[in-house]
């Protein structure tokens, strides 16, 4: 009878969380169907945008111009141009039918604001290479080029010119699935298009309509958030560089089969929630988020603010860093900088757990890849894990449990109560607390020891309502 009741109580909580997860997905779907189709699928606008950005259904043969940065303002100083080039190649290869047909690293001697970026000698050399490999487009791997530069270089190289903003936006466009993601990408596209075609009325109208939809999306998110708060469930947002293993980690922790990790940049563009449960019976929601990348204007990430707010609001953050990546230190820095730019409160950054993932890919010799103090400042929450082999996950769950109890204002109280008595009924009915553990008292089997997890707010109400309960309290960690 005892176990039946607890089982019923747990099932009840689980089903409310499942319903919550499902409802939040449904809301997104309904939202897509009802409001966005016409705005997103505006054929006239889509063809104009493709024409302006020179997007072809056959893809592009791309020549990559990788500037080797001398100036901090335009790039990352601590990484090598070769690593930057590898990332630039991955970006292009993420786009369906786009191929890299040539590349070169060219030292940028100025601050990168010149019309042709480079001097006459380099410009001629690049033009020749582009011609030789029959490239149909050039990708200058700089965060954002000015219109004067785009026009100037297109004229010199006789091919359309892309910068990181336009390439990442193109990837976002291809990967966006939900209405919310599509909407935010459409909004992020406006400045890029306005840049290339000065038709203020057309863009003003579209931007106004899109912003109105974003406002609805925000309202809608608030509704979901209110619902989440009403069931008082702790949330953990998983953030990190793109392709670091965020989705894989949530999949490993929740065994949610719907999650599909992919070896692809920006595979996840929808912020989704996934129910999990910790060993102390605490139910929680994991929030999967869009990955970050270096050298793109913050406006692009900003466009995702409506959905990123879910991450910002989470009780706790887990930062996934791919330690097998040769540029992991810079990736770590980029994520920290982006989080600061998103105005995540410093207290949340302090309590954040950092996991170094893909540990299985490190060689024995790499074991001395112990991160030096100055490279990544220690926050005492650093763990080495592998989502693939499961290594380090138990330790992570242990730390997560402790951190989340604090971050979500939980208290553990142990009561010794008469089995079937009034207090026993109140504690196990599922309305007040989660039962972490229950054992029969060794001295008197009529009594049960109940280890209960309360939110602090509920505990205060419980104490006020059942003042007599304190007589049965054995321990309390508040
Ligand atoms: N060897 C190894 N591969 C891993 C590990 N964790 C993730 N991966 C692989 O890394 C790739 C990226 O994983 P995802 O979980 O999709 O990464 P993500 O951070 O969600 O990526 P985005 O959503 O694109 O930002 C996939 O091919 C995973 O199978 C790990 O611990 N070891
Ligand atoms: Mg992902």
Automatic annotation (TrEMBL):
<dbReference type="Pfam" id="PF13167">
    <property type="entry name" value="GTP-bdg_N"/>
</dbReference>
<keyword id="KW-0547">Nucleotide-binding</keyword>
<keyword id="KW-0460">Magnesium</keyword>
<protein>
    <recommendedName>
        <fullName>Hflx-type G domain-containing protein</fullName>
    </recommendedName>
</protein>
<dbReference type="GO" id="GO:0043022">
    <property type="term" value="F:ribosome binding"/>
</dbReference>
<feature type="domain" description="Hflx-type G">
    <location>
        <begin position="234"/>
        <end position="408"/>
    </location>
</feature>
<keyword id="KW-0479">Metal-binding</keyword>
<dbReference type="InterPro" id="IPR027417">
    <property type="entry name" value="P-loop_NTPase"/>
</dbReference>
<dbReference type="InterPro" id="IPR016496">
    <property type="entry name" value="GTPase_HflX"/>
</dbReference>
<dbReference type="GO" id="GO:0046872">
    <property type="term" value="F:metal ion binding"/>
</dbReference>
<dbReference type="GO" id="GO:0005525">
    <property type="term" value="F:GTP binding"/>
</dbReference>
<dbReference type="InterPro" id="IPR030394">
    <property type="entry name" value="G_HFLX_dom"/>
</dbReference>
<dbReference type="InterPro" id="IPR006073">
    <property type="entry name" value="GTP-bd"/>
</dbReference>
<dbReference type="Pfam" id="PF01926">
    <property type="entry name" value="MMR_HSR1"/>
</dbReference>
<keyword id="KW-0342">GTP-binding</keyword>
<dbReference type="InterPro" id="IPR042108">
    <property type="entry name" value="GTPase_HflX_N_sf"/>
</dbReference>
<dbReference type="GO" id="GO:0005737">
    <property type="term" value="C:cytoplasm"/>
</dbReference>
<dbReference type="InterPro" id="IPR025121">
    <property type="entry name" value="GTPase_HflX_N"/>
</dbReference>
């Amino acid at each position: 009878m005892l176990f039946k009741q607890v089982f019923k109580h747990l099932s009840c909580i689980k089903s409310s969380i499942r319903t919550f997860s499902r409802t939040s997905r449904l809301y997104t779907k309904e939202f897509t169907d009802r409001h966005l189709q016409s705005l997103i699928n505006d054929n006239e606008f889509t063809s104009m945008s493709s024409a302006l950005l020179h997007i072809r259904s056959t893809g592009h043969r791309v020549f990559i111009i990788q500037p080797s940065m001398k100036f901090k303002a335009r790039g990352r100083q601590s990484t090598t141009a070769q690593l930057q080039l590898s990332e630039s190649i991955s970006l292009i290869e993420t786009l369906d039918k786009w191929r890299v047909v040539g590349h070169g690293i060219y030292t940028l001697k100025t601050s990168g604001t010149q019309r042709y970026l480079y001097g006459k000698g380099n410009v001629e050399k690049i033009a020749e290479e582009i011609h030789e490999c029959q490239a149909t487009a050039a990708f200058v791997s700089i965060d954002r080029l000015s219109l004067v530069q785009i026009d100037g270089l297109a004229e010199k190289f006789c091919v359309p010119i892309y910068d990181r903003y336009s390439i990442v936006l193109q990837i976002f466009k291809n990967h966006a699935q939900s209405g919310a993601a599509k909407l935010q990408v459409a909004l992020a596209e406006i400045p890029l298009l306005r840049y290339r075609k000065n038709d203020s009325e057309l863009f003003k109208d579209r931007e106004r309509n899109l912003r109105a939809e974003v406002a609805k999306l925000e309202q809608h998110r608030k509704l979901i958030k209110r619902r989440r708060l009403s069931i008082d469930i702790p949330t953990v947002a998983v953030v990190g560089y793109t392709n670091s293993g965020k989705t894989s980690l949530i999949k490993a922790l929740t065994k949610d089969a719907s999650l599909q990790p992919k070896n692809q940049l920006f595979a996840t563009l929808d912020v989704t929630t996934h129910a999990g449960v910790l060993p102390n019976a605490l139910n929680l929601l994991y929030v999967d988020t869009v990955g970050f990348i270096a050298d793109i204007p913050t406006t692009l990430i900003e466009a995702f603010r409506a959905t990123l707010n879910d991450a910002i609001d989470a009780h706790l953050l887990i930062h996934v860093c791919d330690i097998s990546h040769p540029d992991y230190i810079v990736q770590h820095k980029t994520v920290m900088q982006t989080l600061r730019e998103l105005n995540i409160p410093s207290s949340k950054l302090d309590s954040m757990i950092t996991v170094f993932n893909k540990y299985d890919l490190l060689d024995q010799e790499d074991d001395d890849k112990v991160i030096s103090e100055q490279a990544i400042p220690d926050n005492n929450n650093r763990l080495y894990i592998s989502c693939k082999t499961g290594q380090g996950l138990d330790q992570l769950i242990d730390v997560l449990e402790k951190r989340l109890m604090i971050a979500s204002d939980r208290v553990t109280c142990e009561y010794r109560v008469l089995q079937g008595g009034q207090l026993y009924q109140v504690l196990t009915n599922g309305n007040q607390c989660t039962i972490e553990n229950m054992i029969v008292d060794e001295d008197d089997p009529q009594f049960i020891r109940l280890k209960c997890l309360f939110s602090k707010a509920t505990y205060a109400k419980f104490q006020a309502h059942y003042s007599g309960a304190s007589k049965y309290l054995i321990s309390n960690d508040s």
